[in-house]
Amino acid sequence: MFTRNLASLLSALVLLAFSAKAQLAGQTVKLQTVLGSGAGKCLAATNLANGAPVVIEDCGANATSLNSWTVSGGSGVRGQLSLTQYCLDVTDGVDADGTKLQIWLCGPRDTAQQFTPTSGSTIQWDGGSNNKCVDVTDGNLTNGNRVQVWDCDANNSNQKFNAIPVTFPAWFSVERDHTVGNCITAENAVNASVTIGTCTNDFAKQTFTDPTHTGQMVMYDNLCVTPLGNNLNDGTKLILAPCDANNAAQIWSHQTGIINSHSFAKACIDLTDGNMTPGNQLQVWTCTSLTSTTDNTNQDWVVSNHW
Q: Per its UniProt record, what Pfam families does this chain match (predicted)?
């Protein structure tokens, strides 16, 4: 058995770039087109009023009330993109190439306002044929160019946007999927086992922060979820160790679904032997969903972010 190279910088950079595009449920982001260079161009409303056009504008150094979109569903989930009480809206719900975008008061059942940010960096409109995406009209980056919907095309850069985070979760908890009331937990001590346990009101034992927004899972006074010996081989148990910004083994992609390592993408947090007994220490194991079409329920987690 070989030791996986934690210093795999290329792998880490690829995953960090991916995570920058993946919006969390409830997160506020600026939506920056991949077109152009420098500070870039972002989706913005011209003002906060019904019918205000959605256009391309300079992103600027700071987020504003006109370009800070709250993503209700998160990446891969149908939902709304809102500026306060106004939502991104396909004008009159017309399902046709070239229909322009506006904002309108958010209506939870308004099909003109249902969008899915995809893993391919597109924003798909789900209220019509499900084949229309947000599109920079003619690829024109002139400030004030009104944005439209157009047939989705994975190779069309006019339809690709990076999500630039404006807000980050204050804290998060992690619960096992497929069952109710089983959370990742740990005691307040260096080398404490990271285990499965019954979800309780003991806030500190079952909540995490990521203060540097890099992927750390921090508990208590700067203790991080870490594979024993910084080893990402199958079967390595998870512990709490002092957080180290230079330790790649402490960096995780902690979003709902699988929780995998940034330094070795195929290494996942895994419920050892599927054993739900409280106190069962979690381990690292090869991510089944990344290596086959089979789902491994021992690696399915629900991350609840709190803003």
A: Ricin_B_lectin
- What are the residues facing 156 on neighbouring strands? none
Does residue 225 surpass a pLDDT of 80? yes
User: Is the pLDDT confidence value at 18 over 60?
Assistant: no
Within a domain: residue 174?
Answer: yes
For residues 109 and 223, state if they share a domain: no
Looking at the structure of the chain, the number of domains it has is 2
Instruction: List the structure tokens of 197.
Output: 């346990």
Question: Hey, what amino acid is at 54?
Answer: V
| C-alpha span between 108 and 85 (Å, rounded) | 11
**Nearest of 16, 17, 56, 268 to residue 158 by alpha carbon:** 56
| pLDDT of 257 higher than 90 | no
Count, in order, helices (H) and strands (E) of the chain. Answer: 2, 23
Give the residue from 113, 130, 165 where a domain finishes. 165
What does the block give as tokens for 278?
Answer: 């409280």
As a whole number of angstroms, the distance between CA 224 and CA 218 comes to 5
Q: Specify burial of residue 303 (Cβ count, 10 A radius: 0-12, 13-18, 19+).
A: buried
Strand, helix or coil for residue 242:
strand
What average pLDDT does range 82-93 have in this prediction? 97
Phi, psi of 268, rounded to the nearest 5 degrees:
-115, 150
Confidence at residue 75, expressed as pLDDT on a 0 to 100 scale: 85
The Cα 221–Cα 173 span in angstroms is 16
The whole-model pTM stands at 0.73
- Tell me the per-residue pLDDT of 271-286, one tens digit each, with 9 for 90 and over: 999 999 999 999 999 9
Note the residue count of the chain: 307
